[in-house]
Amino acid sequence: TIPQHLFGKTVVITAGPTVEAIDPVRYLSNHSSGKMGFALAQACVEAGAQVTLIAGGKVALPTPLGVTRIDVLSAAQMLTTAQQCVAGTHPALLSLTENEQIDDHKHHHVHNHHEHERAECDCHEPDDQIEQQSVASGDITSNGNLDTLPLDNLRHADIFIATAAVADYRTQEAAPQKIKKTQDAMTLNLVKNPDILATISHAYPDMFVVGFAAETQDVEHYARGKLAAKDLDLIACNDVSRSDIGFASDDNAMQVFFSERYAHDTVTLEKASKDKIAEQLATIIGKTLTQ
Ligand code: C5P
């Protein structure tokens, strides 16, 4: 078995791209597959953590066993959902807590995608509707063994990990109707998205916060800049100038830089499967957190 470096820790992870609506049928997004974040979610569960995975865009990956998954689309939704998950107030976590207290309904913990959306989750709904619950921020999927849940809702998460490829810009306003091709040229007004990682990191100075970065040059310089600007504990960097790793690839290679508050040398993780890299990162996070 894997060393339990994250035993009893609660972890919130963002993964995948965000999707920014242009009109009801079109959107802006990117090629992030979500693989690294999903692999990390699985590795954290295996290392003993309770994991909430916020998947942006339309990530087409199975939910790792034991992970509570919440699907969102846009950066704005991802930020709201991440804030609620870190605070432990997201309806998905509250209702899982409630379910946990109903012993003979433990089998209800295996959810699948729900079709309907509701304005808010009524956590006092009758038992037979537990499998139907869904919330406005997105679909909730809990997969498999949830005996290690629930979270202690009075306490914020121990670790926040941002692997999501958040769109830098969104449309100022999504058109309510499909835009017709009547003009020869058209302009989209874009506005900057919030920085989810920086917002959460600054709101919870004592939480362990992990960022990712993809750089093509001056990797260390940019990594250290982001460590400081976003007040991170550590940052894992891909070298995206390499064509054999990253994005949709199953492999990755990373350099890990630590905040100056840890006297840690930079760690290089050699090219390996994303699962293997994720395991190593989970171990590094656990050891740094508890040192
Ligand atoms: O600034 P840059 O996009 O390179 O930062 C990368 C890190 O910040 C990643 O961990 C990414 O998930 C996070 N991020 C975020 N929200 C944004 C932009 C980046 O959480 N709007």
TrEMBL record:
One of its GO terms (molecular function) is phosphopantothenoylcysteine decarboxylase activity. It catalyses: (R)-4'-phosphopantothenate + L-cysteine + CTP = N-[(R)-4-phosphopantothenoyl]-L-cysteine + CMP + diphosphate + H(+); N-[(R)-4-phosphopantothenoyl]-L-cysteine + H(+) = (R)-4'-phosphopantetheine + CO2. Binds 1 FMN per subunit. Residues 7-87, 132-285 form the DNA/pantothenate metabolism flavoprotein C-terminal domain. The lineage of its organism: Bacteria, Pseudomonadati, Pseudomonadota, Gammaproteobacteria, Moraxellales. CTP binds at residues 168, 178, 194-197, 212, 226, 230. This is Coenzyme A biosynthesis bifunctional protein CoaBC. In the N-terminal section; belongs to the HFCD (homo-oligomeric flavin containing Cys decarboxylase) superfamily. Catalyzes two sequential steps in the biosynthesis of coenzyme A. In the first step cysteine is conjugated to 4'-phosphopantothenate to form 4-phosphopantothenoylcysteine. In the second step the latter compound is decarboxylated to form 4'-phosphopantotheine. Residues 11-291 are annotated as: Phosphopantothenate--cysteine ligase. Pathway: Cofactor biosynthesis; coenzyme A biosynthesis; CoA from (R)-pantothenate: step 3/5; Cofactor biosynthesis; coenzyme A biosynthesis; CoA from (R)-pantothenate: step 2/5. Its cofactor is FMN; Mg(2+). Keywords: Decarboxylase, Flavoprotein, FMN, Ligase, Lyase, Magnesium, Metal-binding, Multifunctional enzyme. Its EC number is 4.1.1.36, 6.3.2.5.
